[in-house]
Design brief:
The chain is an alpha+beta fold. It contains 16 helices and 9 strands. Among the domains are: about 80-155 and about 315-425, MetI-like (MetI-like fold), CATH 1.10.3720.10; about 175-305, no CATH class. The strands form 2 sheets. It has a 5-stranded antiparallel sheet, with no helix packed on it. A 4-stranded mixed sheet has the order 1-4-5-8, with no helix packed on it. A hairpin with a 2-residue loop joins strand 6 and strand 7 (about 275-280).
C-alpha cells in the first residue's frame, strides 16, 4: 500500500505579511521606539557633558601646550616632577584623610544626640542651613572670618579678647625714644641709657610716638618729678612723653605741659645683672634705692613696647589648609548628620531596648550595636564625601590669599591654574584632569556597587 499523504492544514497559513501585522510584535516595536525616544535626550546630554569632555581631555593630555605636537606621556611625567603639583597632591591627600573622617564622625555623634533632645527637627534644620549657601558665598564669609586684623576677623577678635583677658599687653606699643637724647635701642627691642649712672644721679627719658589719646587717663605732668634731685643713695628718673600738645616745647627737655608715662617697667642693670626693678608712677617718675656704689644702666625692657597680640594667622602657610577644611566642615556637617539620622531612625528599636534591659550602658549600646548596624550608611556617607572632597575647588580658590595660594592648592585648583589661571598649558591641565578622574572613579564604582547590593 502506498503511504497516504498528510492532510493539508486547515485554514490559511500565516505568511510574512501576517507576521508583519502581528499585534504583539507591533506593540513591542512601538515600546522599543518609545524607549529610545525617551532615553535619547539623556544619552545626548550625557555624551555631550560627560563622555565627550572625558575623551577630549584624555586626547588633549597627550599633546603639548599649543596642542600641535604629540608628546605622549610627557605631560604625565612633567606633572609628577612639578613641585606645585606634588604639593597639590599632598594637600588633596590631607583633605581625603581628614575631612570625610571628621564629617562622618560629627554626623554620627550629632545624629545620636539629636534623638535625645526635644527640638531635634529645629536643630537639624539649623545645622543643615549652610547647605543652602553656595561655596562662593561660604568662601567669602570665611575669608572675612579668618582675617588677621581683629577689627575685621571674628575668629581673631575672639582669640585676642581671650588672650588680653589673661595676659596684659604692653602699655606703649607705639612708643619710640629720642635716641639722640641719652637712650639707645637694645637688641630685643627695649631701650637703655647711653651713659652710666649711679646713686645720686637723675635722668629724664623722653619718648614720642604715643598718641595723646593713648596716654593713660591718670597720667600727670612730669615737670615736677623731673625737677626733684636724687638723694645720695637714690637713682631717680622720669619717663615722659616728649611732646607738647599744640606745639612748642624743646625736644629732650621736660616742658610744663608734657605728661609722664605711668606703668612702664624700669630696671637698673649692673654688669649684665638686674640690680633693681620698679614701675613708673603717675607722673612718670621712678626711684631705685639701696643700690651699691658703682655704675649702672637704666633699662626699659622690650615688654613695654611689644606690639599688641593680633591673634592667629589662620590664612598663613601653616594653617591655611586646616582653616579651609574647617569651612568645609561647616557646610557639610548637616548633610552628614541628616543622612546618618535617617539610617538611625530605621534601626530596630527592639534590639536597643533588649540591650538596655540586659544592663548595657549608652556607650556600650553606641559602639557595640548602633555603630555596627549603621556601618552600611556610614560607608555610603564616607565614600560620598571622599568623592566630593576630591573635587573641591571653590573654597580653596576663594579663601586662600594670593601669597599662600600654592600652599593651599588641591588637584582641582592646580588643574585650573595650570590651564587657565596663568599657566596656559592645557595639555598639562588635561593630564591633571585625567589624574583626578582616575582617583575619583574607584570611589564612584564602590558606591554604585554597594548601592546595588543594598537594593538586591
Amino acid at each position: 500500500m502506498k503511504p497516504t499523504a498528510p492532510a493539508p492544514p486547515v485554514g490559511p497559513v500565516p505568511g510574512p505579511a501576517a507576521a508583519k501585522h502581528n499585534p504583539r510584535r507591533r506593540a513591542r516595536r512601538r515600546a522599543r521606539v518609545a524607549a529610545v525616544l525617551f532615553v535619547l535626550p539623556a544619552l545626548l546630554l550625557l555624551g555631550s557633558l560627560v563622555v565627550y569632555p572625558v575623551v577630549f581631555s584624555i586626547g588633549r593630555s597627550l599633546f603639548d601646550a599649543s596642542g600641535d605636537t604629540f608628546v605622549g606621556a610627557g605631560n604625565y611625567t612633567e606633572m609628577f616632577r612639578d613641585p606645585a603639583t606634588l604639593k597639590a597632591i599632598r594637600n588633596s591627600t590631607i583633605w581625603v584623610v581628614v575631612a570625610p573622617v571628621l564629617l562622618t564622625g560629627l554626623g554620627l555623634v550629632l545624629a545620636v544626640l539629636t534623638e535625645k533632645i526635644r527640638w531635634a527637627t529645629a536643630f537639624k534644620l539649623l545645622l543643615f542651613l549652610p547647605m543652602a549657601v553656595s561655596f562662593l558665598a561660604a568662601g567669602i564669609i570665611f575669608r572675612l572670618a579668618y582675617e588677621q586684623d581683629p577689627e575685621r576677623g571674628v575668629l581673631n577678635a575672639v582669640v585676642v579678647g581671650v588672650h588680653d583677658s589673661v595676659n596684659d599687653g604692653s602699655a606703649y606699643p607705639k612708643a619710640r625714644a629720642r635716641e639722640e637724647h641719652g637712650l639707645s635701642r637694645t637688641e630685643d627691642g627695649g631701650y637703655r641709657t647711653s651713659d652710666p649712672l649711679g646713686p645720686g644721679d637723675s635722668v629724664s627719658l623722653g619718648f614720642v610716638g604715643v598718641p595723646p589719646a593713648d596716654v593713660p587717663a591718670g597720667a600727670r605732668p612730669a615737670a615736677g618729678a623731673a625737677a626733684e634731685q636724687a638723694a645720695d643713695d637714690e637713682l631717680r628718673g622720669t619717663v615722659y612723653l616728649d611732646f607738647t600738645p599744640g606745639g612748642g616745647g624743646s625736644p629732650g627737655r621736660v616742658d610744663p605741659q608734657e605728661k609722664g608715662l605711668p606703668g612702664m617697667s624700669v630696671e637698673a642693670v649692673r654688669d649684665g645683672e638686674v640690680a633693681g626693678r620698679t614701675t613708673t608712677a603717675a607722673d612718670g617718675s621712678f626711684t631705685f634705692t639701696g643700690l651699691a656704689d658703682g655704675s649702672y644702666t637704666v633699662r626699659l625692657p622690650a615688654a613695654n613696647f611689644a606690639p599688641p597680640y593680633e591673634g592667629v594667622s589662620w590664612l598663613g602657610p601653616a594653617l591655611v589648609t586646616p582653616a579651609i577644611i574647617g569651612a568645609y566642615l561647616w557646610i557639610w556637617t548637616g548633610f552628614s548628620m541628616v543622612l546618618i539620622g535617617a539610617g538611625l531612625a530605621a534601626l530596630p528599636r527592639d534590639t536597643l531596648e533588649a540591650a538596655r534591659m540586659d544592663g548595657a550602658n549608652e556607650w556600650q549600646i553606641f559602639h557595640r550595636i548602633t555603630v555596627p548596624l549603621l556601618a552600611p550608611v556610614l560607608t555610603v556617607v564616607f565614600v560620598t564625601l571622599v568623592i566630593n572632597v576630591m573635587k573641591v575647588f571653590d573654597l580653596v580658590y576663594i579663601i586662600a590669599p594670593g601669597p599662600v595660594q600654592e600652599d593651599a592648592n588641591v588637584l582641582a585648583t592646580q588643574m585650573w591654574l595650570v590651564s587657565f589661571g596663568g599657566g596656559n598649558n592645557q595639555g598639562l591641565g588635561s593630564a591633571l584632569a585625567v589624574l583626578l578622574l582616575a582617583l575619583v572613579v574607584p570611589a564612584m564604582i564602590f558606591n554604585v556597587r554597594r548601592f546595588r547590593r543594598s537594593q538586591s
